[in-house]
Design brief:
Layout (H helix, E strand, L loop, with lengths): L11 E2 L6 E2 L1 H18 L8 E5 L4 H16 L3 E8 L6 H15 L3 E5 H5 L3 H6 L8 H19 L4 E3 L4 H13 L3 H5 L11 E3 L7 H10 L17 H14 L3 H17 L9 E2 L6 E2 L5 H13 L1
Parallel strand pairs: 3-4, 3-6, 4-5, 6-7
Antiparallel strand pairs: 1-2, 8-9
The protein binds iron/sulfur cluster and zinc ion.
Length: 306
Amino acid sequence: MACDRCKNQAAYTRKYSGEKLCSQCFSKSIVKKTAKTISKYKMIKHNELVAVAVSGGKDSLALLKVIHEMSLTHNFKIKVITIDEGIPGYRNEALEIVKKVCLELNVEYKIYSYKDLFDLTLDEALDLRENEKTSSCSMCGTFRRRAMDYAAKDIGADVIATGHNLDDTLQTFVINMLSGDTTKVGWMNPDTAVNSLRKIKPFCEIYESEIVFYAFTNDIPFQSEPCPHMNEGIRTDIREFLNLLESQRSGIKNNLYQSIIKVSEVMKNSNSNTKEKTNCEKCGSECTGNVCSVCILVSKLKSNQT
Ligand code: SF4
Ligand code: ZN
């Protein structure tokens, strides 16, 4: 089987398009597609500093490789930020990989832990929950978003880049719809040019399976241990459901993605997303009430400690 682009031995077949590619042409296509997404949504501007959020998983390490390659020929700089949630036995392997890759690429990196920022590790916070209605991942996500904002500001970044891929976007959309949270759908639009500290997802138009192959074919080392909380939420079920649909009807994920872009565009411009922004009385972060949701969560957990 020959590569459709260069006639070398093909190593990957894109089921949804029928295209067959060798490893090199496949990798080039990933870099090109990422560059196209970045330029389509004006994700990075001249002279900006991009904080690449690297967890040590395949998506974020693949993003680091691609975006580092682009930074060598484009007018922007990158630094790596890594968030340590404080999950015993899980994050340590990842932190070692992140350090190694950053040293090899000669990219500056800094680690920020929940413990330092909130005086609680994730596991301590989970133990202090009143009940398990708040899932591990939703609590972790609340802390992570704040930790990444803090980290990006701390290193003087203009933009935070995360390794979220197309599958992540679809899963988040379905989760938001199933929980009746249509406001969050508006936040999913990749066109984020209006915010001050922009959050970008340069892989948002690439299938997870392609990122996996990119990491594999480029010998990117990534964390083998999954988070022990990974299967507690509904995300894994939705992920499996969407994978099943895609295996039976190639391209269905692309179709859903296109619908999400259209729906999120409408939601973004609707009134439900124009709540007035204020600053949290406790930490100064932007929020919509007097005290931000993170400060409320932390003080609630702390009150359970005593
Ligand atoms: Fe946090 Fe959930 Fe990810 Fe584990 S799987 S790191 S708990 S968001
Ligand atoms: Zn606050």
